Amino acid sequence: MSPLPREPHLLSVNRAVPVEHSRGYRQLFGQPRLTLGVLFPIEAYSGDQPTMQGQTELAQFAESTGFDALWFRDVPLRDPGFGDIGQIFDPFVYLGHIAARTSTIALGTAAIILPLRHPLHTAKAAASVDQLSGGRLVLGVASGDRPSEFPAFGVGLDERAELFRENLLVFRRALTESFPAIRSRYGAMQGVDLVPKAVAGGIPVLVTGRSGQSLEWIAEHAQGWLSYPREPDLQARLIVEWKRAQASVRPTADLPFAQSLYIDLLRDPDAAPTSMHLGYRLGRRPLVQLLTRLHAIGVRHVIFNLKYGQRPASDVMRELADEVLPAVHAATAMAQAEVRAVPA
């Protein structure tokens, strides 16, 4: 009889470890190269609803072949007019499912809609995933961009920016303080504590888009910024703004910039890029060139979305693993080494 899998060492907490040193965050942003992840559902599909077939196997393939992260969406309700419901399952439930079937790859959310969730529920769910995965969680958060969802939760769309700020502050205090006294519009917390806590001194947070905030506020309250794909020259200008905001509020910080990227990877390895929704239709060699360019302008992590592809996701993942990842890792690590070798 084979032995049962060993349970993780739960309630392991080291608050002396900075949140930026958490396992997931270091996997994404502690590498001397561009890191690459993939967003669930890992499949190409028409309409708004994926099949969700073979996702665990593709997640395990991603881990075994050098991808750095798996990313999960938070889409509470189906709006057929929006065209996309993500991985269908609740993000924290699905995180638990995938965390139990992987062991090293970082786990990210892109992104949890803070105004539609009680911050204590968000904190408990996130800390639970972080503990069960051994500190692999990186929490992307957002204010929400689907107006049809807000009435169902009794939340005013015009309140989302303010709710986002308050929710994030409650979330952070609940995870980093013991028996905190917290008063907010969500309630009053006194004489009780939230458990579990995160493995490190909190859970790293990436704000997605602007979420109704200034770049200075994001730089002050988050561990990085997750934005949308743009033409590289435009993205470069935005990264300059991001660095300028950091310098004004946290001059010693080096906060990363990450982005998503829809790709339709064509069979012709030299197919020139053509624009499509939030990304490109292209061959693998131009993709390597694009990713190398993104790293050169300051992008630290790219999340692939395969929804609009024409090929089976398993074929695309294999080509990415065999051809794109090694080339990008080598090129961006070399570029980073050259930068570090230049005298200050």
Structural write-up:
The chain is an alpha/beta fold and 344 residues long. The protein has one domain: Luciferase-like domain (TIM Barrel, Alpha-Beta Barrel), CATH 3.20.20. 36% of the residues lie in helices and 17% in strands. It is built from 9 helices and 12 strands. The strands form 2 sheets. An 8-stranded parallel beta barrel has the order 1-2-3-4-7-8-9-12, surrounded by 7 helices. Strands 5-6 form a two-stranded antiparallel sheet. Helix 4 links the parallel strand 3 and strand 4. Helix 7 runs parallel beside helix 8. The protein is globular, with a radius of gyration of 20 Å. The N terminus is likely disordered.
| Mean pLDDT across residues | 93
Q: If you compute it from the alpha carbons, what radius of gyration comes out, rounded to the nearest whole angstrom?
A: 20 Å
Stated plainly, the CATH topology is called TIM Barrel
Low-confidence stretches: 1-6
Question: Main sheet: which strands, in order across?
Answer: 1-2-3-4-7-8-9-12
Shape: globular
Number of strands: 12
User: What is the CATH architecture term?
Assistant: Alpha-Beta Barrel
Secondary-structure element sequence? HEHEHEHEHEEEHEHEEEHEH
Number of helices: 9
How many domains would you count in the coordinates?
A: 1
In the CATH hierarchy, what is the superfamily? Luciferase-like domain
Measured between the Cα atoms of the first and last residue, the distance is 61 Å
User: Strand percentage, roughly?
Assistant: 15-25%
Counting helices, strands and paired strands, the structural category is: alpha/beta
CATH class: Alpha Beta
Main sheet properties: 8 strands, parallel, barrel
